[in-house]
């Protein structure tokens, strides 16, 4: 095998053989294929695509690059969910304990923020003492003790994806459906969950901007999961405006705790419940009632146990940014648009995300929303509050908000996009 002929095959729109795929993934993981060669291949895949057979083999090779976890010793069925990434997407935080409170075990391997999208681990790390890095044994202990665990994937799980993902991030090759599908599904299949619900985001704040692309990504991932014996369904959900009223790490933890306490913004509650119902059905628990588990405090009990089991103090005060800046409504009327991508970039620039992989994030930084599309606003009222420890960031963050919202005259018809747009199953 030689990598140059593999790159040429894909460059010239050919189909890669199974042996070529197995070899290139293994050689890249071992360091025998260089980053510049893999980035050329990733770009050829982005431009020319892969067929379903190639994607399945690529995914299998990434799974085979590392270990596979096994939760078959647990007494409960396992269920996991994965979001393709969005702005204000804190759903994993209330969802994992909620589904555990309803009887499933939830082994939730999560990631850090990427670009303008937030990361579950960055959010949870704003809780004093909380640890993202657990050994496999610790992960199993938290799962047995609390019913759910949210932690970082260990180095042994799909190491090919770890390398390739970091490479794609800096070579403009993130947005390729075959590469996104194989990246997500290799980790989820290697993790060993019995069932999986995918939250495929669609809209300006998502990697998939159109319903057609989101549908294709969802059906590719559902097919991969099903072929590997994981009961997999996907919901296509709206990411044209931020989820809830916050984007930023500690800000989103606070909002998630409100949801677990029976309150919180309607869109966050609705999506949490929709995903919980799908996870419970896929795990063989269709009669469980997640709305009851939110209302009666049992989901909150699991949250507190899970946070404490990972070293966190569920009662600790969360960090607050040192400085704030308020953006006001330019006119009176109806807020008809508040763009998810622009708000995500603002939160990122305020310090909630990183410019380079190794940068720290600010726990208190981010954006809080005082109105959502469809709400009436009055000229001069607060529309957004920006939070940061480093006020020199305000100017750059404000630039990303120029053109981020529209206010139409009072009485303008506004029809809200439903939060769940479509469901894709095998
Ligand atoms: N999340 C992943 O894990 N991989 C991708 O490629 C995109 C989002």
TrEMBL record:
Belongs to the thymidine/pyrimidine-nucleoside phosphorylase family. Keywords: Glycosyltransferase, Transferase. This is Thymidine phosphorylase. Pfam families: Glycos_trans_3N, Glycos_transf_3, PYNP_C. Homodimer. PROSITE patterns: THYMID_PHOSPHORYLASE. Signal peptide: none annotated. SMART domains: PYNP_C (SM00941). Residues 334-408 form the Pyrimidine nucleoside phosphorylase C-terminal domain.
């Amino acid at each position: 095998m030689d990598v140059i002929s593999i790159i040429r095959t894909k460059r010239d729109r050919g189909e890669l053989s199974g042996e070529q795929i197995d070899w290139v993934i293994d050689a890249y993981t071992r360091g025998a294929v260089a980053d510049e060669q893999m980035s050329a291949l990733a770009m050829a895949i982005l431009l020319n695509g892969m067929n379903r057979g190639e994607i399945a083999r690529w995914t299998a090779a990434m799974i085979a690059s590392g270990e596979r976890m096994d939760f078959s010793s647990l007494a409960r069925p396992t269920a996991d969910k994965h979001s393709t990434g969005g702005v204000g997407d804190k759903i994993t935080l209330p969802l994992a304990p909620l589904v555990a409170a309803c009887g499933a075990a939830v082994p939730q391997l999560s990631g850090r923020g990427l670009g303008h999208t937030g990361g579950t681990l960055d959010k949870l790390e704003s809780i004093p003492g909380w640890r993202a890095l657990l050994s496999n044994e610790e992960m199993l202990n938290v799962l047995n003790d609390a019913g759910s665990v949210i932690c970082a994937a260990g180095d042994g799980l799909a190491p090919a994806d770890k390398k390739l993902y970091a490479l794609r991030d800096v070579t403009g090759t993130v947005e390729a459906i075959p590469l996104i599908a194989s990246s997500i599904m290799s980790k989820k299949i290697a993790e060993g969950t019995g069932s999986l619900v995918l939250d495929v985001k669609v809209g300006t704040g998502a990697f998939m901007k159109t319903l057609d692309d989101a549908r294709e990504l969802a059906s590719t991932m559902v097919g991969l999961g099903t072929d590997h014996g994981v009961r997999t369904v996907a919901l296509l959900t709206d990411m044209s405006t931020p989820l809830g009223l916050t984007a930023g790490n500690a800000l989103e933890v606070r909002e998630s705790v409100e949801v677990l306490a029976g309150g919180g913004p309607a869109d966050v509650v609705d999506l949490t419940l929709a995903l919980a119902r799908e996870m419970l059905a896929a795990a063989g628990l269709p009669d469980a009632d997640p709305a009851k588990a939110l209302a009666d405090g049992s989901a909150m009990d699991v949250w507190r146990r899970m946070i404490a089991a990972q070293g966190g103090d569920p009662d600790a005060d969360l960090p607050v940014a040192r400085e704030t800046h308020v953006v006001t409504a330019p006119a009176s009327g109806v807020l008809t648009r508040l763009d998810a991508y622009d708000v995500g970039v603002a939160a990122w620039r305020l310090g909630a995300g990183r410019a380079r992989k190794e940068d720290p994030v600010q726990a208190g930084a981010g954006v809080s929303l005082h109105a959502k599309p469809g709400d009436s606003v009055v000229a001069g009222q607060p529309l957004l509050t920006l939070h940061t420890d480093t006020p020199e960031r305000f100017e750059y963050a404000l630039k990303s908000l120029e053109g981020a919202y529209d206010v139409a005259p009072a009485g303008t018809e506004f029809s809200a996009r439903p939060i769940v747009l479509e469901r894709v199953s095998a």
